[in-house]
Design goal:
The complex is a heterodimer of chains A (about 270) and B (about 110). Chain A has about 270 residues and is of the alpha+beta class. Chain A has six helices and six strands. In chain A, the strands form two sheets. In chain A, strands 1-3-2 form a three-stranded antiparallel sheet, with helices on one face. Chain A has a three-stranded antiparallel sheet with strand order 4-6-5. The radius of gyration of chain A is 23 Å and the shape is elongated. The chains are: A alpha+beta (about 270), B mainly alpha (about 110). Chains A and B meet through helix 2 and helix 3 of A and helix 2 and helix 3 of B.
């Protein structure tokens, strides 16, 4: 990789918006200009700049693409340049210190962010239920259709993978709920005092990254370990479960990371949309 | 999206509706609010955008077609329903100020 280009894995949550903005400001001050904003961010070497960043969640859920453009245009007219977008999170930057933040009403900001957090909670709960349902389905398939025939390894392998994934998602869900509760409490307090909504700061990003890799490695290792134990103790040498689990885990990781890391193509900072 | 009924107006909402007694586009609304509040209130574009969407959903404002205005800029103006809502809000604020006047004059 060129010394003038830096790629950085940046997992964050809706509770970390200030942390993301502050991180971009720090990078700009160190001479790294953001050229792509996503799960993987790309920076290019630049002169150190005193730039203000602001990360906001897309307001008003029913917006179509023209309305989204309208939102960006309004921000641009107000002096904010779109630096990038990751899902519903828009990142703006400006060199003008005198203009107000993109979001200035704590009440509407709280409503937007809390709506997104609640939506994410529902998605996580659905995923956990689905993983359990799939695991049960694979076990049922084995019990009802695997009788008297050679043992279908892949059914049990898939059941193990889904059960472990559900278990880890449940743990992550509990962890997230506690973090979100803390944010809700602080945000409500700030809102009642008409103060800006507080988010977790820049330091939290390193924790998120560390947690992400820890969870991924623990999840992968658990799947492999259980598959190995199952292969040796139950299935004997003929089992293909362990190799299947290795391939499955590698594919999962590849699907998550390859698109983000290697397919960075466009950048709003170059005037191109995604 | 289901229409979310507005009961009262927050301070920025009140000023935005006041500004829209004449057709204005987004950036003009922001400037006008600053003028009306004598520089005390600055509304960010994200906040304004959410507010305009909510007002439009509630029928308090509507897009305005201004002769000679740029088609790229969306202009809004207050509706009859918006004027009635703004008047109610103005009366409510006036009553509150009047109710507190005697006590506040003794305090200050």
């Amino acid at each position: 990789m060129s010394k003038d280009i830096k790629k950085e894995f940046l997992p964050f949550y809706y509770t970390d918006l200030s942390g993301v903005a502050n991180h971009m400001q720090t990078m700009a001050a160190e001479g790294w200009k953001l050229t792509y904003f996503g799960n993987y961010c790309q920076f290019t070497r630049n002169d150190p700049e005193d730039v203000r960043y602001d990360a906001v969640i897309l307001p008003h859920r029913s917006m179509d693409s023209s309305a989204k453009d309208g939102f960006v245009k309004l921000c641009e007219e107000a002096g904010w340049e779109l630096a990038g977008r990751n899902g519903d999170v828009f990142l703006f930057r400006t060199t003008n210190a005198g203009i107000p933040n993109v979001e200035t009403d704590p009440e509407s900001e709280y409503a937007t962010v809390s709506e997104q957090i609640k939506k994410l909670r529902r998605q996580r709960t659905t995923s956990i239920i689905m993983y359990f349902v799939f695991a049960c389905a694979f076990i049922a398939m084995h019990l009802f259709f695997g009788k008297g025939r050679s043992f279908p390894d892949y059914h049990i392998g898939l059941a193990i993978i889904h059960l472990i994934a559900a278990f880890f998602m449940l743990l992550a869900h509990i962890q997230s709920i506690s973090r979100e509760k803390s944010w809700f409490a602080h945000a409500k307090k700030a809102m009642s005092l008409s103060k800006p909504i507080p988010y977790f700061g820049e330091k939290v990003l390193a924790t998120r990254r560390r947690d992400y890799w820890f969870n991924t490695i623990t999840l992968g290792s658990s799947i492999l370990l259980l598959s190995l134990i199952f292969s040796i103790t139950v299935r004997g040498e003929e089992s293909h479960l362990f190799s299947s689990a290795i391939i499955g885990s590698a594919l999962m990781l590849a699907l998550i990371h390859i698109p983000g890391k290697f397919l960075i193509k466009k950048s709003y900072s170059e005037g191109k949309g995604r | 999206m289901p229409r979310e009924a507005l009961s009262t107006l927050t301070e920025p909402m009140y000023y935005v509706l006041l500004a829209l007694v004449r057709p204005l586009c987004g950036i003009e609304i922001m400037d006008r609010v600053k003028d009306l509040s004598h520089g005390r209130l600055a509304i960010g574009p994200g906040t304004l955008y959410t507010m305009l969407a909510k007002f439009e959903d509630n029928g308090l404002i509507a897009p305005a077609k201004e002769p000679g205005s740029s088609p790229k800029r969306k202009t809004y103006v207050i509706t009859t329903r918006g004027v009635s809502f703004l008047t109610q809000e103005y009366e409510r604020l006036k009553r509150q100020a009047e109710d507190g006047r005697t006590i506040m004059e003794e305090l200050v």
